[in-house]
Amino acid sequence: MNQRLQRLADQIQRTLSSLIRDEINDPRLTGFVTISGVKVSPDLGYADVYVTILEPNQDTGMNKESHQESMQILNRASGFLRTQLSATMKTRTTPRLRFHYDEVTAHGNHMMDLISQAMRETAKNDHQDDE
Fold first, then answer.
1. Distance between CA atoms of 8 and 63, rounded to whole angstroms?
2. What residue ranges in 14-127 does DSSP mark as E strands?
3. pTM confidence score
4. InterPro entries of this UniProt entry (predicted)?
């Protein structure tokens, strides 16, 4: 990705973060939406927005299926978000937004949780062995 596209992607990411936080008032969108990356197509036709969603209750875990409704809400709001984005950006065209669940980040977070859990278990077992 060239520098111009990268700067545009960074601007879209910053602006969308605040728009989603401040402007999307759908009560079904219960989680904290984090934009982990934006990729803009070379012709500026599309921007693929990769998001992770941290739910207040972690019972469902971080997987694509548990956040399907939130992803549908974001994709349905893409037209509104694009309109708001075009009002703040100084470009001739504003790319269409496509939201994708970022499974890489979610998987990394899950792996970190498993590692932390294993380390706690190891420390607990080592402490019991010392007694």
1. 29
2. 32-40, 46-54, 96-101
3. 0.75
4. KH_dom-like_a/b, RbfA, RbfA_dom_sf
Q: Are 12 and 40 in contact (CB under 8 A)?
A: yes
Which residue shows structure tokens 């001739």?
Answer: 92
Compute the distance between CA of residue 64 and CA of residue 53 in angstroms, rounded to an integer.
10
pLDDT tens digits for 21-39?
998 888 888 778 889 999 9
* 55-85: pLDDT as tens digits: 666 554 555 666 788 889 999 999 999 999 9
Closest CA to 95 of 130, 45, 53, 55: 45
- Residue 108 CB coordination number (10 Å): 14
- Amino acid residing at 106: A
